[in-house]
Amino acid sequence: MLGRDVLALLGDGAVGLTRRELDVTDRGAVLAALRALRPSAVVNCAAWTAVDDAESREAEALAVNGTAVRHLAEACALVGSALVHVSTDYVFDGHARVPYAEGAVPGPRTAYGRTKLAGERAVLELLPERGYVVRTAWLYGAGGGNFVRTMIRLAASRPSVDVVDDQRGQPTWSADVARLLVALVGAPPGVYHATNGGDGTWYDLARETFRLLGADPGRVRPATSASFPRPAPRPAYSVLGHARWREAGLPPPRDWREALAEGFPAVRRAASG
Q1: What secondary structure, in 3-state letters, does the chain show?
Q2: What is the pLDDT of residues 239-257, one digit of tens each?
Q3: How is the chain split into domains, by residue range?
Q4: What amino acid positions are annotated as catalytic residues?
Q5: Domain 2-146+170-200+238-254 - what CATH class?
Q6: Mean pLDDT for the chain overall
Q7: Total-model pTM
C-alpha cells in the first residue's frame, strides 16, 4: 500500500524492489543490490505487519523488522545513501494521555512493537547523519487491505457494524505518508511522526467512512476492545506529536478528516474494483 504510493509519487526516478526481487533478510543480497544501484536514498516500506502472528512468531518478525533493517542501514552506510525507515506507534505502550513526542521513551507491549523498535535502533545507531525513522499508524489507502476498505465493504453487506470506540489514534492516508517520506530526504536526520493530524477512534473513522459513502452513520455502533479479543493488545492511545516537522522547517501533516475526504474516492474505487 505505502510502497506503491511512494513509487507513484517519485515516478521514473525510483526503483521499487518487490519481496521476490530482494529478500531484505538476506544480508548479502541487500549489500549487492545497493552496491549495484547506488541510490541517493532508500525508503524502506518492507515490514512484518501481522501484529497478532508476531506474538507466536517473534523471531520471524524480528528477521524482517529488526535484522533486515540493520542490513539496509549497513548497506546505506557503505554506499553513502540516506535511509528513510517506516516504523510504528506500537513502539509505545499506549498508556499516554497526550500525544507522544518524537523523543518519548519507547515501551512496546507487543512482539511486533519490540521488533519494530529493534529496527529503529539499527537506523539511529548506524546512520546518525543520514538515517530517518518515521513512525506512522492507522494507515489506509487504495492499495492493500485496510480498515476503510473493510468499512466500505461492510456498509454494503450489513445493516449495522460494531466498531471499537476505546482506542484513540490518527487515521492516516498512505498517500500523505508517501509525500512526507519523500519530503524528509535532506532534512535533519532522526525521528519523525508521519500521521495525519487530529485524533479519533475507530468508531469515529467508521462513522466518517459511512458519511462519505452517503450511508447512515447511525448504523455504526460503539463497542469496547474487550468485545474483540486479540493475541496482541492494541494501544489504547496511539496519538503521535508532530513538533519535529516544524523544527525541521517543514509543514506538519494535515487533519485526518481532510485527508480522508480527498483520498476516499480512490479508496472506494479500489474497494469496489
Answers
A1: CHHHHHHHHHHHHCCCCCCCCCCCCCHHHHHHHHHHHCCCEEEECCCCCCHHHHHHCHHHHHHHHHHHHHHHHHHHHHHCCEEEEEEEHHHCCCCCCCCECCCCCCCCCCHHHHHHHHHHHHHHHHCCCCEEEEEECCEECCCCCCHHHHHHHHHHHCCCEEEECCCEECCEEHHHHHHHHHHHCCCCCEEEECCCECCEEHHHHHHHHHHHHCCCHHHEEEECHHHCCCCCCCCCECCECCHHHHHCCCCCCCEHHHHHHHHHHHHHHHHHC
A2: 999 999 999 999 999 999 9
A3: 2-146+170-200+238-254
A4: 112
A5: alpha beta
A6: 97
A7: 0.97
